[in-house]
Structures are given as C-alpha cells and as structure tokens.
Amino acid sequence: MKRIPDKPRLTSRPRIRDLGIAIGRYPTGQHNAITDVPGVRVSHVTKIEGEGKLVAGKGPVRTGVTAVMPASGDVYEKRVFAAGFILNGAGEVTGLSQIDEWGVCETPILLCATMCVGRVADATVAWMSRRHPTIGGEDDVVIPVVGECDDSYMNDAVGRHVTESDVWKALDTARPGPVAEGNVGAGTGMQSFDFSGGIGTASRIVRIAGIDCVLGALVLSNFGALENLRVDGMPVGALLAPHYVSLPRRGPAGSIIVLLSTDVPLVHRQLGRLSRRAALAIGRCGGYVAHNSGEFIVAWSTANRVPRRRPHGRYRAELVLDTALDPLHEATVDVVEEAILNAICAGLPAIGHSGHVSPAFPVEEARKILHKYHPLAAGRNVDLLRKARQT
C-alpha cells in the first residue's frame, strides 16, 4: 500500500489566485495557508491501494488522515481558547461539545473519513498518553478533536484503512510552511462540486487594534453540485454544466469541516462568533446545506495559552474588544471561501472503487469564463484586483 507523507506536490494544478481571482480585499500570508498563523502545523498521510470492484473490508483504498497542531509547543499543557459551530449536524467532530463547554482545545485536531473516526480518536489517545502519562490518572481523560467527511464513493469505507501508525506518522510529521491541497490526506477520496479535491487552505493578514494579525483556514471539503458552484460571485458552475452533462455524480449529500486559526487575542465567545461567520462562505460558494450533509466549524486563537496547572488557580488573558473585530469577521468569510476554491482547483483526476471517477476541475475552462465575465479578473493580476477593491 502506498502510504504517502505530506510533501506539498509540485504539480501544474493552479490555485484560485492563479486564475486571476483574489477573494476579498485583504492580503494573504506568506504561504496563503493556515500555517501562516505562527505555531500552526499540518501534515497528511495518504493511502492509495488497489483498483476494480469494491470488496467491502478489503479495498480499493482511497483515503488518509490529516493532522493539525493548533499551536506551538504542547497544546495539552498550554491550551488554546477555542469554539465551534454546527451549521448542519449530519456528521461528527468528536470533542466539540467539550470545547464549547470549557472554551479551550487541548488536543491536536485530526481529519479523516467517517468510518475511521473511532480508530483515529483511539490512536490519538494512545499518542497523547505516551507523551503525558498523567492522562487518565493524576489528570483527567482526554477527548481528541476528530472531524470527518464521507469518502465512500471512492474508498472502501467499511475497511477503515487508516491505522494507528498512520495517525502517529501524521502527528509526528506536522510542520509549518506550505500545505499540500486537493486529494491528499483526509481529502484523498473527497469531492467538491462533483470534482476531485478535499483539502484546501488560505490565509489573510488583517490589521486589528493597530496590529497586523494572521487568520488562516483549512477545509476538508466534500460537498456541492457543479451547477451551484460560484467563484467570487460568478456562476461558473452553471456556465460549465452544459459541457459536463455526463459528469459522474455522487449525489447531492456531502459535508465540510472548516478549521479557523488566528493569532488575534480572542476568547471562547468571540471565537464562536467567528465560527458562525465562516458558515457564510459555504453558501457563498454554492452550498445549501443538504439534508444528509454535515457542516462543522472549529476556531481557535493562538494568542493566549491557558496553562493546565497554576499554583494559585488564576490566569489572566488578553482580548481584543468586539467593536474592533469587524475586519476579522469580513476576512473570515473570504478566507474560507478561498480555501474551498483552492481545494476544488487542486484535485487531481482519480479512479476509485467500482470504476467511480473523480475528475479534475477544468481550470482552463474556468479561467476563460472568469476572464470573459468577471468585471475585474480579465487581463488583471490579483494585486490590481485587490487594490481596486480596497479603493
């Protein structure tokens, strides 16, 4: 079996900015990725094996796992303020109820296929217990944060092919810098708007309370129908659809997990507000929250690190006033929209079990549509587009 660690692939696949589209008016970070938030690290392990008809429990395999370290150092000993929002609950993010009760995240965040949630959570508990023998004894037990989407259209879901060693490898190799996108890690068997690609990421630099701050998003995207796809407000999917009447369809259901990170000093309540605004980007891209889909958002701030132990039992946190946060709210919708579009652009053509096909998004056709109809994209680069919007 191919078990492929995260090495950002140098392919010809563009990101959405390469098509001349800059979402919103705020600039990106260095890598235009969630890892632009200092301390945040990401890794994927991708698993691809076999071909042909589905044999439940055996293959073919088109799956993987993605690990996100929320902050520098040890998030168990120095927790981060966090919150979540469930737009539609036909899915699972383990540990989310504890985040909303306590207002902090104390574990890495893992993404995987639906049927692998138990195995990934168990492996994460084992990984953390080796590093913190006090868990379950001197300290409380832990509930890892594990989010899922359904890759059964391409992958043998019943086989639950992500193993403990895969999870440990992803956790041990998480790193800053560029992040691989498309059908990698947890996104290996995922589709977005009927095309291949599950993992996408983006970032923004926003000036908040006189300081330049970073906001990053990473999505595990597995939702949408081609006809509904919108790119920066343009009905690109509707214009492409007549040329793809024979496009293989998984069906309308799907899901998305959105991870948001920032170094703006925010507390649980404020991060909850940020999470709700992230949901707007799903609709902006053309999602309508199907009956059988799950839309979950988890947000955290790296600015305050809440210690597990303090002799006097007190901790003082910094926060930005709510009245200063509107630029961050605006950037949140933009950064999630761009992360979703990057996931769509990055996917490579793939064949799953039983001849199921996941084609690559037709970026050149989309580029022509955008350059023909978009009021700012034609013949202009993204820097000019951003400047035009800022004025």
How is this structure best described in words?
A hairpin with a 5-residue loop joins strand 15 and strand 16. The chain is of the alpha+beta class and 391 residues long. Helix 2 packs across helix 3. The protein has a 6-stranded mixed beta sheet with strand order 1-2-3-7-8-5, with helices on one face.
- The count of β-strands is 16
Main beta sheet = 6 strands, mixed
Which descriptor suits the 3D outline? globular
Helical fraction:
10-25%
Q: What is the total number of structural domains?
A: 1
CATH top level assignment:
Alpha Beta
Cα Rg: 20 Å
In the CATH hierarchy, the third-tier topology is known as: L-amino peptidase D-ALA esterase/amidase
Structural class: alpha+beta
Q: Please tell me the CATH architecture by its name.
A: 4-Layer Sandwich
Strand content: 25-35%
- How far is the first residue's CA from the last residue's CA? 53 Å
User: Order of strands in the sheet with the most strands?
Assistant: 1-2-3-7-8-5
Q: What's the average pLDDT?
A: 93
Contiguous uncertain segments of 5+ residues: 1-10
